[in-house]
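User: quick one
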Amino acid sequence: MAEKSRYNYRVEPQDVDFTLRATIPSLGGSILNTAGIDAHGKGFGVDALNADNHSWVLSRMAVEFDCQPTQYTDYTVATWISDYGRVLSTRNFTLTDAAGREFGRAVTQWAMIDLQSRSAIDLSWVGDAHADAIVDAAPPTDKPRKIRAVSPTATAEHRVVYSDIDFNRHVNTMRYIEMMLDMLPVDMLTQEAPVRLDIHFLKECRFGQTLTVGCELRGRSALFEISADGAAAAVRASIEWK
Amino acid sequence: MAEKSRYNYRVEPQDVDFTLRATIPSLGGSILNTAGIDAHGKGFGVDALNADNHSWVLSRMAVEFDCQPTQYTDYTVATWISDYGRVLSTRNFTLTDAAGREFGRAVTQWAMIDLQSRSAIDLSWVGDAHADAIVDAAPPTDKPRKIRAVSPTATAEHRVVYSDIDFNRHVNTMRYIEMMLDMLPVDMLTQEAPVRLDIHFLKECRFGQTLTVGCELRGRSALFEISADGAAAAVRASIEWK
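Assistant: Done. Structure below.
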């Protein structure tokens, strides 16, 4: 049975907004980067999978930040895999400051796809082959919530450009989150309050597509739905400030 | 007289495009981050200046990459200040891989502004106060070139949103560069050839403004001009593949 792995980060100037606190996408970026590094180090990273024409894709993600640390704050991201299902693998994270105080956590669920067919692969063999990578510790918070119905009260359009796409040739997770945040009032984004974000990915969005980002404000929460070229929802998300 | 300072980086999964090589904005981001960290460590960072309601702003930048390293490549950014003028301070950079081979370099010129009036401050006192921070080594390549006339053959519009702005409350340098790159054919961006980018900033662009990005393709080069709300040019740049 494995142990949690720990990686050190610091809130750099490019990670903060004008309140000098780390943005949600910068902390989310560190979380996803940690997933990549940890899988790479353990021999089942995207680079190893690419040899078989496979890749990991993020299916669902929930992140919670009790606060957003200020510029130059050192922090540690601990990560561990708690389970493999047939379709999804669950990777967990906690974020702690230098004093050891936990200020954030995340639960992510990943599918493995075939890069040719872009369809999901049965993960049972991964669970067998990498059983020693599983850590016997429960996820640090509720798993990502499904968001079923969004009734947008505002929409924005965005054509997918080179800077939006990642190594998997689809829109980068943090770019989706930025598109959503950018529809909210700045006062909402810069308030100092605990925040939880749930996002789930239903379809990939690709270079050259035109995205429609729908936003429904509900008090201190917002629901989002992104679709590409007028098709059914590709991404749904909710953000809630406590 | 000071020595060059060195900072270590690694090309992370979020830094690469689908060719699995580091993007120009990700390498450029490491360069600017190094400037911030080094100034911070030496006591004249943005955080120290903010106490007097001052800040550093980038005025001009030239970057050259002989190649763009692949995912998980370790590299070192060395930085040094070569001179202070009355208005601009010159900070230089070289990028080297683990074998010590230089694959990139940059020359940046910075002004100090008053955050209230947004106007430049005489830097002579900084040169006096921080003379011991100057390194007696010439810039590693030509200083940033002025780009005088751009005749756009294509234009794009972009409204400045929350994710575009940085701690100085104006559009982030790498976002400008992304806006420009996103107007070019993807084949041009992913070719394996040495590239040089020159950018200069004439005016700040702020939250809520609508930017017009003009692009003029000239063979293996491109010229750009960005203006806000129909006013005169705010940013001009050129990108040239050898």
